[in-house]
Amino acid sequence: MLEALFSDRTHVLEIASGTGQHAIHFGRALPHLLWQTSELVQHHAGIRAWLDEAQLANVLPPVALDVNAAQWPVASVDAIFNANTVHIVSWPSVERMFDGIGKVLKPDGILCLYGPFNYGGAYTSDSNASF
Questions:
Q1: Structural domains of the chain, count
Q2: CATH number at residue 51
Q3: CB 16 within 8 A of CB 82
Q4: CB 49 within 8 Å of CB 43
Q5: What is the tens place of the pLDDT at every residue in 69-97?
Q6: Which residues of 27-46 are buried (b: 16+ CB within 10 A; e: fewer)?
Q7: Rounded CA separation 27/113 (Å)
Q8: CA distances from residue 123 to 54, 111, 120 in whole angstroms, order as listed
Q9: Residue 35: domain span
Q10: What is the pLDDT of residues 42-70, one digit of tens each?
Q11: What Å distances lie between residue 76 and 35, 62, 111, CA to CA?
């Protein structure tokens, strides 16, 4: 699905890249994109380990990003991806995250959120229900 959504995008910010595994997967699958990883500083070493092993020119080293910060380290992107964050942070943090997204996402940009959300009142998988 991201292939279709991001087919005409060029620069993606991944909010809260975690280990970096999503960046590597999507960086390989979508080589036309410049994929910017981000995370709290204490998680950068894990992301760098994944990046060092994968050696993908289109996946950038992590920038320090706290969704609660007033200023983000990226000025402008045409797509944002985030997996498994909005359901585990506080509601004020979600609000600040969306404020930050509004500052850096271009007017015609695409925001893609992934998480254990319900569709039609049902989880999309057993693992999402457990999470």
A1: 1
A2: 3.40.50.150
A3: yes
A4: no
A5: 999 999 999 999 999 888 878 999 999 99
A6: beebeebbbbbbbeeebbeb
A7: 17
A8: 32, 21, 8
A9: 2-130
A10: 999 999 999 999 999 999 999 999 999 99
A11: 13, 16, 13
